[in-house]
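Deliverable D4.2, example record:
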Amino acid sequence: MAVGDGRRALDGATRYHDTRRVLAGVVVSLQFVATPPLAVAIGTGMRLSAYTVPWLAGLIYLVLAAWVAAFVVVVLRRGGVPDWVQAVNVAVVAACALAISAAVHPAFFTEVDGSDLEPFLIVTAVVLGMTAQLRRVVLGCAILAVAHVVAEVPTMTTTHADIASTVTDLCWLAGAAVVSYAIARRLLAAEARTDDATRQVADLHAQVAEARTRSQERLRYLKEQIRRYRALHDGPLSILTAIASGGLDHHDDEVRRQCAINANLLRGLISDDPMSTLSNLSIALTKAGNDYAVHHLRVNYQFFGLPDDLPHAVVDALTGASREALNNIAAHAGTDKAWLTARASGDSAVTVTVVDQGNGFDPATTHQGRGLSDSITGRMADVGGVATVDSMPGQGTRVELRWPA
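Output generated by the structure prediction step:
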């Protein structure tokens, strides 16, 4: 698993926020649950002519309905219940519970369930328990309890209602707040523990990915060292050992030719890029340039981030085309220097350029022999690559090889 996969693990703050949204959805649902009993109480009150101040009762129901609608809209938009909404909700419901007792006959409270807005009082207590801190839950429930008791006083004194009924209502109110508070806190605590575990797993994945990356870097470095050792062992080290042991005479023309070739190899193994690495392609290109040391053509190499998994056919095509470009420089350019650069140009894509500052030619008027068409352009086309030649008289020549095309 890559580091990015660990980072894509579910963020704790987001999941905590999602839990708040779930609780907000429950709160909104409870508001709708509390509405039918109120509608039944209103209809019953009108049938029994229980309203002593009809306009006040109508105003109370209108305010309560408007607030419930506003409450639902705000909660759905915010994805939670803001503190100010909690405070207004308690104030509106408590005020309506107090006011409704002045608009109905006291006996109405004992004859019709929900006529004293008890469902809304309990729902408001549940909203507090699910969304508020403990101190606000206690304060809000106390306000609701006082409003309910004060509203019930006329009924208790006029109809001699059993005080136990009011006590039962208060127990329901307090119980609803306590239970909802406990459930909400347990849900949030469980979510927090899940978030912690998720972050720990993500961190472990990141550590594993980082360790794997370090291992891959070490392996790549070891492979590079092996390639470098083989290139040095098979070339410069062998001939230097032979000269040092007296097996070869450094004055011999063939020995000097081999020394020139291996000096060119050493130049190819040295890059101006401190982050460069050896690859099969860079070694093959270096060896391809060695043959031209005897023609007194010095090839300067630069390799940048070459992939190590190129197909053999592609390496052969790039090497052969580069060799032909160097051959043309040695034969026609009239210069003793060339520059061969190879760099990665994308995922598993490479660009090789061979440049000289020699005589150059006019591609429009100069006949291009089979060396360009077959050994360079044709060879690259065979492996799905492309070759371009750019030259001007007196300005040198640039051959660019790209794979894939």
